[in-house]
Amino acid sequence: MTAWVKNCFASFDRRVDGAITFFFKHYGKTKFMVAMSKKAQYLGLEKLFLKGPKAFVYFFLFYLIRDTILYIIIPICFATLVD
Questions:
Q1: Cβ-contact 42, 61 below 8 angstroms
Q2: Which 3-state string (H, E, C) describes the chain?
Q3: Residue 67 and residue 9: Cα distance in Å, rounded?
Q4: Which residue, of 2, 17, 63, 71, has the greatest Cβ tally within 10 A?
Q5: Which pairs from 30-34 meet CB under 8 Å and 24+ separation?
Q6: Alpha-carbon gap, residue 78 to 72, rounded angstroms
Q7: pTM above 0.70, yes or no
């Protein structure tokens, strides 16, 4: 049953050119964050920082804030509500 659901999802995702998996992979990220992630992958963090320190700091802060909210604050709030 689960393999059938996965196959249906994968075939639909292929029809829409991977838009669904892209959405889930980049949920909560701005276009700036996605672009900087790609630059960080092919330039490396040091060269990215040397290229534009201000943009790198913004990129780091956006990720820090986003990840703090997603992985720390929301689970703590959920745990206190459930408890």
A1: no
A2: CHHHHHHHHHHHHHHCCCHHHHHHHCCCCCHHHHHHHHHHHHHCHHHHHHHCHHHHHHHHHHHHHHHHHHHHHHHHHHHHHHC
A3: 27
A4: 63
A5: 30/62, 32/58, 32/59, 32/62, 33/59, 33/62, 33/63, 33/66
A6: 10
A7: no
- Across residues 24-37, what is the average pLDDT? 76
Q: Which residue has the higher pLDDT, 11 or 1?
A: 11
From CA 43, how far away is CA 41, in angstroms rounded?
Answer: 6
> What is the residue whose two structure tokens read 């996605």?
34
pLDDT, tens digit (0-9, with 9 covering 90-100), for 59-73: 888 777 877 888 888
Residue 6: predicted pLDDT: 84
